[in-house]
Amino acid sequence: MPQVPQTFFDALAVRTWCALALAALGRAREEIDAINVYPVADGDTGTNLYLTLESACAAVEAAFDGHGTGTGPAGTAGIPTLADAARAMAHGALIGARGNSGTILAQLLRGMAQVLAAEADEESAGVDGPGLCLALRHAADAARQAVAHPVEGTVLTVASAAADAATAADGDCGTVARAAYEGASAALAATPGQLAVLGRAGVVDAGGRGLVTVLGALVETFRGEVLGGAGAGRVRVPARSAVIAAPPAPGEPDECADAGCGPAFEVIYLLEAGDAAVARLRERLDGLGDSLVVVGGDGLWNVHVHVDDAGAAVEAGVEAGRPYRIRITHFGVGDVHTGGGRPPRERVQRAVVAVVPGEGLAGLYGEAGATTVLARPGEPPASGELVEAVRRAHAREVVLLPNDADLRHTAAAAAEQARSEGIRVALIPTRSAVQGIAALAVHEPERRFDEDVVAMTSAAGATRYAELAVAERQSWTMAGICQTGDVLGLIDGDVAVIGSDVTATAEAVIDRMLQAGGEMVTLVLGDEAPESIAAHLEGRVREGYLAVDTVVYRGGRQGALLLIGVE
């Protein structure tokens, strides 16, 4: 990995900068987390910035791997062009953006990449100092435009100051980078005087602090200077407990009380949609909540918003296009959405973390208070994603619902990691999302932890589960030989029915399950299920099983045509 100072901003400089910035954020992550009080004091700004940049670094490395490992001229088999490297950095940050701060960082990198790609000379494949100035200016402007209601004293202010200072500088990339860093540092130090919540807590803006760290790595890339102590920006950084406990000053208005302490959920998802649809989405989400940031372009967007109705935020994305990688975080009872008000709570006592197979269920689980991890078809979450979700839940006690038999070992590894960090985790071996729904229905946070876990485990265990899927190839099954395109009805993980019609197969599955008794049938419809199937199956249950109720949910792109639960 090249570590020598760079003269021009070329593909190697992109690679070096990303690596240095990631290392710097890794060193500063805990400090940045500790001063995070705006817009929500959930102590994860440093972590979110790190994860966002980690995704950008991985994308840049993939771009280099795609061109081989040599050191030939840009655009040859040895090294990608600046445009390719910059676009990879921006795309990686976009798809990996975490939280409010990470989403804004992704837009800053995207803004820079747009200028770097446009300004690069095809022969030199790099840009000089004036080109870097343009990139920083466009980045700051793009980030500000992405935020529905920009607030001064935040990372947006720091980014604008960096761009202003860079524009006033006259020199090569190293000179411009140093000026941007110094301008950003001065602006960061002034943030407590611009945002009351920062002043009360005695800290600088955490997102701005992270940006100063990233700009420090830019200076190191071009000048070889390792800039230490960019952290607190001449402002005291108190212990985390002091930040949490800091009350409004005597006689100072409590802004959080005036604002009603704001929404309870953070909703983030990637969205494939056109510009016109995204413009409508912005208006709708702006009416649902706050902290709205929509970044991206060219058909791919990262949406971040804080809302009370998580399901409505996801539904708005479904109407606009195709949302995926949905993450819903419940801030928890006692959490204060500061919105510029007082710093909030410590960890909540208990939370539920659940893996869900579709967007619709992500909204349903989120409304019930769970922190969700979306399992995309063919892309099961890794243990690291589950650990991150447990951390985002910000609770002392966590109930983990994997909702998939194949995730048992992954979830166990995540639970063990979380326990090593001092979090009490109980893993309930749910094998389907319908079992998770049953467990969540009896969840009572006020109960003793062990009693709550027993009740949830019992409810999940008492729920038989089934799903309908389409056979991808000829195969032997417990029900006989299936052909490609056959509809398979799996009960408790085994193929029990093979049919040619989705509705008829679903009927047969439900009949078999209800032969053993039941009081409630839960149907979760996938996007590819027939429109009429829900009404038909409800009628079938109503006519054939008088004492059995039916509830229907829409799961979205969940992989299976239909999920069925009987309890």
Description of the molecule:
With 567 residues, the protein is an alpha/beta fold. Helices cover 48% and strands 18% of the residues. The strands form 4 sheets. It has a 6-stranded mixed sheet, with helices on both faces. The protein has a 4-stranded antiparallel sheet with strand order 2-3-1-4, sandwiched between helices. Strands 6-5-7-8 form a 4-stranded parallel sheet. Helix 1 packs parallel to helix 3. It is elongated, with a radius of gyration of 26 Å. The termini are far apart.
What topology emerges from the helices and strands here?
Blueprint: H1 11-34, H2 45-65, H3 82-96, H4 99-119, H5 129-146, H6 155-168, H7 173-190, H8 196-201, H9 206-223, H10 240-245, H11 255-259, E1 265-272, H12 275-288, E2 289-297, E3 300-307, H13 310-320, E4 322-330, E5 348-356, H14 359-367, E6 371-374, H15 383-393, E7 395-401, H16 408-420, E8 424-427, H17 433-441, H18 449-461, E9 464-470, E10 475-477, E11 480-482, E12 487-491, E13 494-499, H19 502-514, E14 520-526, H20 533-544, E15 549-556, E16 562-566
Parallel strand pairs: 5-6, 5-7, 7-8, 14-15
Antiparallel strand pairs: 1-3, 1-4, 2-3, 9-12, 9-16, 10-11, 12-13, 14-16
Helix pairs in contact: 1-2, 1-3, 1-9, 2-3, 2-4, 3-4, 4-5, 5-6, 5-7, 6-7, 6-9, 7-9, 12-13, 13-14, 15-16, 17-18, 19-20
Describe what is shown at a glance.
With 567 residues, the protein is an alpha/beta fold.
Helix content: 40-55%
Oligomer: single chain
Q: What spatial form do the alpha-carbon principal axes imply?
A: elongated
Number of helices: 20
Structural class: alpha/beta
- Largest sheet, if any? 6 strands, mixed
Give the end-to-end Cα distance, rounded to a whole number of Å: 57 Å
Radius of gyration: 26 Å
Name the average pLDDT: 84
How many DSSP E strands?
16
- Strand line-up across the major sheet: 13-12-9-16-14-15
Q: Low-confidence spans: pLDDT under 50, at least 5 residues?
A: 69-76, 229-260, 333-345
